[in-house]
Amino acid sequence: MAFLPIIVLLFLLIKCGWGATEAAPVGLLITILTGIFVYKADITLIAAESAKGIWNALIILLIVWTAILMYQVGDEAKAFLVIRNGMRKLLPNELLLVLAMGWIFESFLQGITGFGVPVAVGAPLLIGIGVAPVWAVIIPLFGQAWGNTFGTLGAAWDSLAMSANLAVGSPEYFQTAFWTAAFIWLWNVIAGVAMCWFYGKGKAVKKGLPAVIIMCLIQGGGELLLSQINTTISCFVPACISLIVVLLLGRTKLYRDEWRVDNSPIMNRDFTEQKSEEKLPDMNLVQAFVPYFLLSAITLIVLVVKPINSLLGQISFGFAFPETSTGYGYVNQAVESFSPLTPFTHASMFLFVSAIIGLIYYKKHGWIKAGGVKRVFVKSISMTMPSGIAVIGLVIMSKIMDGTGQTVVLANGIADVLGNIYVILAPFVGLLGTFMTGSNMSSNILFGGFQMTTANLLNVNAAGILGAQSAGGAIGSAVSPSKIILGTTTANILGSEGEVLKRIIAITVPATILIGVILFVLVAI
Length: 525
What we know:
mainly alpha, two-stranded antiparallel ribbon, 525 residues, 21 helices
């Protein structure tokens, strides 16, 4: 019965083809019914856990909305078209240009926005430089995946820490961050090499390998290092640095000359850029990046300068909850301030301020036309609403499963059946969660507590299991149907999702198996 809500959720999402927005309320309803009738939870407990879930979901949705708002500002000002054209001039080596537009720029967007924005933006940008539409969707899906845990200023990571009850700054917190970043680094290398292989097989791998190694050292290595200092910026900062370095690589002897594979299977050689009837804004590349420069500066100042961080962090608020227990004696302790929000040091505040200043800047220069401000806010709200329903439903479902003891029962059952072999499957649970929900963040919410409990029952390294969970969730973002649909929509090839998924699974499944085997060897043998 503990597994029933998840079984139904999987059935609706995979077999019936429902979206998370439609499936989450059904899973939630079943969770409530099993909690009351099977796990002997009273209405007070259900109400308390639901309220906790709503509060956590609202905090998460603040990031979702402000991230999408920032994207809409740039889209309305046509800043992304300027970025596309400017990057093409800076990088004459076609392979490096594809890596920059499909991997490095997506990493940058994932570091601060996420929620499918890198795929939605990346697909038309790649088509604009001559990449075939199907591959223009596949490449950004690979490119953004490594940033899915610590990206969006650590939103998915914070969700994992919250679900697994990891105290911020504790040894367990940083150990889990280390395992997570190490596994993601491995995926980062695999993705970089795979993109070169897609472009021109062995010839392109040989040409692109030096760039891939440098990018992976900056991205994966930088994330690993910063995850032990400040998890909020551990993806964002390396992504920013990699964006600068890829431009510098375009000036080196190896990549400064024109180079391409004429028979590249991912390039449309019949492509001729169609000139837009609409005149592009008189904006240079630096101006197109203004909101992102602002975000970089604000984030670093608030999070790194301790006096400012301490001052702004003084304002905090949360809600008190009473002790509750089930008829079987499963107890949820009383809390004075549950999951407190510090609004002025929260990622959503950085995104919101940067988006608004960027909006003012673009409007002042005439790049936001009449009615543009209204369109930006209307579109950002309309894009947030579907994910909002899914996130709220899944978070409440997760909290009720946890509060009624269902997660513990589920973990006990799986641990008893599989024993230590379960360790190999730990990253698949994360991948499955992201496939189901379209979000590594939601996967961590749904399975973080379960993975922690299972690790403790098996008496294996909980940090390693949680790291595999979120790394699997990050890889799962490359096969998430909702993200694939975002790409096929903006690439104007809606209906090609099966072809995209088939090509991506050939890389993601072996990579996930590899992480599970490595974890098993390190912690379970």
